Description:
This protein is mainly alpha-helical. Helices cover 56% and strands 6% of the residues. A 3-stranded parallel sheet has the order 1-2-3, with helices on both faces.
Amino acid sequence: MTEREKLDVVVMDAQMPEMDGLQATREIRAREKTTETHLPIIALTASAMRGDRERCLAAGMDGYISKPINAQELVTLVETLGSQTRLAKLSDQRLPESGAQFDFRTALARLEGDVEIFREQVVFFLRDTPGLLSGLQEALAAGDAEHVRTTAHRLKGLAAAFDAQAVTERAFDLEQRGQRGDLQDAAAVLKQLEEALSQLTAALIGYLELSPSVSGNGA
C-alpha cells in the first residue's frame, strides 16, 4: 500500500501475519533512502509492555500508542506527524553515507533539517559514549547487572538519535539481560556492540570534519 498510494501517516500494527510491523517499517525505511521521503509511522501494540516503545523506535517508527487506543492521543500523534511527509532536501548537506547500521538522513529529517541541532547531538554522542562503554565493560566484569541495564539504556538512547540500528539493538539486548539479571553470554553481545560503536563513531567524526558548526563554535 505504501508503494501504491501517497499516505500522510501509517498506524502500523506491531504484530501481523507474514511480516510484523517492525520488519515492515525497516523495509519502508530502507526504500526511503533512495527517494528522500519519510513516511510517519505510528506503532500500535496490544499492550504497553516494557521495552515495546524502544523496539518500535529502534525499528524506525516515529510514535507509539497501545491498545485500548486513546482517541485524543492518536489524533495528537497524527496531527504532529502527518504534516511531516517529506524529508528536508539534504543534497547540500555533507552527510556520511547511510548504511545498514545507521541512517543520518532520516535522523536529520526528524529534526526538520536543523543541522546545528544534529551537530550538537553528534558532539554529545562522541563526548558521552566512551564513558558509557567503559562503564558497561566494568559493570559486566563485576557482574553488576543493574549497572549493565542502566548504562546500556543510556547508550541505546544516544544511538537512537542516528537511527543506529546495530548499536541500539545490541544495547537493548544488554539492557534486557541486565534487567533479568542474566549476564551469561553478555560478553559476546558487548563485543558486537563495541564493533558497531566503532563504525558509528568513525562516521560521526567524519561528519564533524566535513561540517563546521553553523554558528562558528567548535566542538
